[in-house]
Input
Amino acid sequence: MSGQLPDRLEALQETVCRIGECVVIAGVGSAVFDMARLTENAATVFPLDGAMGAAVSMGLGLALQRSDLEVVVVTGDGELLMNVGSLATVASAMPANLAIVCVDNQLYGLTGGQRTHTATGTDLAKMGAGAGIPNTLTCRAPEQFPEAVEMLRSAGPSLVVLKVGPEASARYPVDRDASACRVRFKEAIG
Output
């Protein structure tokens, strides 16, 4: 394994964008910008911007309601730490069609770059495993991307923590009208 952590966009491109047909709930801030950029604002990506801590819960609700969909939540370490208890709820419900991808740069990127607890030893994959999520992985290098994709494609629930460098995600134009996003997403998923 190399000593340098992957770039966040490279990590998402080589994991989430390789899963295949799925719908994405993108969590606050950087996850929204990243997924909007990588999918060119695809209608199957719901930008849950402005509701910090809610991405996993929303993805869980969608996965339980629509077992015909492969649901992927893309969130950051700061947001997941805000509602880490949602991992226990995911494990309790055990939806086979839910995958969670946490982009962990160890920073609260949108509020000034303060360090998150993952910078001081908190291990989100171990927290997920401890909550009962059967498939967990911390991915620190490009050599692990194929293993991450395989886990995300497998029957879930799954939690993949992508350790990435500290570079901030560049802003990207995203429709922030929640009502319009809801209608567009609902039409896209049928």
Summary: The radius of gyration is 15 Å.
